[in-house]
Amino acid sequence: MLNEHGFADLHVHTTASDGMDTLSERCVHAKEANLPVFAVTDHDCLHPAFSEPIMKTDHCAIISGAEIRAGVAGHEVEILGLFLNPTSTELRDVLERVQQHRIDRNQAIVRALRTHAGLETTYETLINRVDGVLTRPHLAEQLKREDIVESHDAAFQQYLKSGVKTHEPLQLVECEEVISAIHDAGGVASLAHPGYFQPPESDRTVDSLASLIQRLQTAGLDAIEVMYEYGESGFSAPRAAALASDIGLLQTGGSDCHGSKNSITTIGDVRVSRPEFQRLYQRADTAISPY
């Protein structure tokens, strides 16, 4: 994994959205992995445990963050906000709008699944069962639980991916508003896993991605998620690093771990170096030391 000489895992999920582990469990896992710093970046929300951009335990520092869906040039991307002050009214307002868009979409998908896939569970039952934010992986799990599909992959292929009858597009808040809200909260805005923007099979795709990143930079983007486990997708950390270097953006990175038992990577498997973390920290507007 991509953790040689690493210092901080800046992309971790908890039960506040679609992760399988609580924040307390994440702290235990960080200690076991000898991980000095990690960021909680739950989908479209701030973890309620934070009252400041950085929270410290006896063995690690935890960064307040969020992974926020946004629109840019008609495309959907995810922006990582790091070092977020949870008292920011602008950020709270944007997150509430994004969350409402997600609620509207989930309700539409559940209605379609009940009509076209034979799903028996109601939307109300699903949201009462989930501790954090209801997401498509939760819907995939329910389809599997009701024996409508055999696996999570089958659920997405048949019912949840773009282009199928039961898919519902997500209304997006534009990237300018998302990045502005992150900055209002004193945070750093980074494009999450750029290699997943399009299948990276050709140079033209890279050109298209570079153009997208330039538009995001014009909107105020600070960084690109470079260190990331792309597996056999065809994209790589060096390609992301080249994109960041070409236009002078900082670099973030992380495991994107959703659970200690069901994730391709676990917390601490992917890390950024201490010098790169320091550059990100210096860009943020916070006086709280993570060290």
TrEMBL record:
It comes from the Archaea. InterPro entries: PHP_dom, PHP_domain, Pol/His_phosphatase_N, Pol/histidinol_Pase-like. GO terms for molecular function: 5'-3' DNA exonuclease activity; 5'-3' RNA exonuclease activity. It comes from Haloquadratum walsbyi J07HQW2. PANTHER family: EXONUCLEASE, POLYMERASE_HISTIDINOL PHOSPHATASE N-TERMINAL DOMAIN-CONTAINING PROTEIN. Residues 8-72 form the Polymerase/histidinol phosphatase N-terminal domain. Coiled coil: none annotated. This is Putative metal-dependent phosphoesterases (PHP family). The lineage of its organism: Archaea, Methanobacteriati, Methanobacteriota, Stenosarchaea group, Halobacteria. It holds the Pfam family PHP.
